[in-house]
Amino acid sequence: MEVHFTALIRFFVIASWIFLDHLAPVPYVEQIIFLVADMGSILLFLGVLALLLLIYPFFVPWKKDTLSLALGLYFLMTILVTFVGHFPMPIMGYGISPTIGYLIAITAIQKIKIEQTKKERIYKR
């Protein structure tokens, strides 16, 4: 059963890369980082720094758990994939939905850490 599921996922990944949409990229969505670069090197540096700061909370050394790393990898890949195709830059390039998703992810990790700390305190007693 697991083999069929991974084959299905592979099929959808390959199909999505073969059948890309043919719409022209919108500069303020898919090419936002390049628009920032055109505005000056200082703003480009600040834009890249802001993107790196977005994923930092998921990779901090004292929070090494599977959920944090998986979410961090997800947000990192959504940032990197914008450089290989016409994909929107998360947080910077489009709408409120990715911002809400990011805030939910950060909040979930924090709540899980608080619950884990409470359980550790109970077991130590």
Set out the fold topology.
Layout: H1 2-18, H2 27-30, H3 32-39, H4 41-59, H5 66-80, H6 97-124
Structural class: mainly alpha
Gap between N and C termini: 44 Å
Mean pLDDT: 82
Fraction in beta strands: under 5%
What does this structure look like?
This protein is mostly helical. It is about 75% helix and about 0% strand. It is flat, with a radius of gyration of 19 Å.
Keywords:
mainly alpha
Summarize this entry quickly.
The protein has 125 residues and is mainly α. It is built from six helices and no strands. The chain is flat and about 60 Å long.
